[in-house]
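Here is one such tokenized protein:
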Amino acid sequence: MAIPSSAHTSGRLSARPETIAAPAGTPPGRHALDLGKGRDGIVLIPPGLDPAKPAPLIVGLHGAGGIASQMLALLAPFAEARGIIVLAPESRGPTWDVIRGGYGPDVTFIDEALRRVFRMHPVDPAHVAVSGFSDGASYALSLGVINGELFKHLLAFSPGFMAPTATEDAPRIFISHGMRDEVLPIGPCSRRIVPALQNAGYDVEYHEFDGGHVVPPEMVERATNRFLG
């Protein structure tokens, strides 16, 4: 694993789809990243993609203690139906680096993972999103506003907080949260995050639902529709 650069310790990613030439295409299915020992990640290439046509991409970040397959379980039904590539990387530790003390190893890993995906299939620069659940949602919002030039859309399911080192451009944001969430209670979490983002000028679509610390399929569907709209 590469040593985090000064950019990575600030949460900045350098990989961009338009700067990496993709080959003729990768067969559909789930592919291991093969970048990490023990904790790695998965890339989903949906069926029916035109190998010459850039496709949308969602980066899906798991919750604390999670693994890549959990985010794929949430996103795959909609991604496969709508022709969206999914990158589900795994954190280097039990959860994402900034939650454990600061940006660095996970930013480096995600940057490498993005370069791997950009070499597997052409990606549409206007339709790159970062999403996540729980700790992954907090990390998606934080990394997303830092890297707004790359991530045009942020899809956060039950986030707890944000910790950006800077902001860039103005990505469109989708947030959902359960009103009976006992893990990350809605009051000090999304009901504080959403007004702060709106006051900062971000375009935010926000949904509360009658449920706990979960991601209902209808919230994933709404997020996907906003991403592709």
